Here is the input.
Amino acid sequence: NYEIWLGKNNLRQDELSAQQHLVSKSFPHPGYNMSNPKNHIQDPEYDYSNDLM
Here is the structure.
């Protein structure tokens, strides 16, 4: 299962406009290459919120 947030601008702060939803299925984009994933170093200072694929 996945957890997604809508309307959240800062992942480290509570926001009244944010909505949390649980998702049980995903539909990858047909152009997404699953054999070449990005290998991000888990850096707490890096903002991953814009990394959709």
Remarks:
- The beta strands are 2-6, 19-23.
- The CA atoms of residues 9 and 19 lie 11 Å apart.
- The radius of gyration is 13 Å.
- The chain has no helices and two strands.
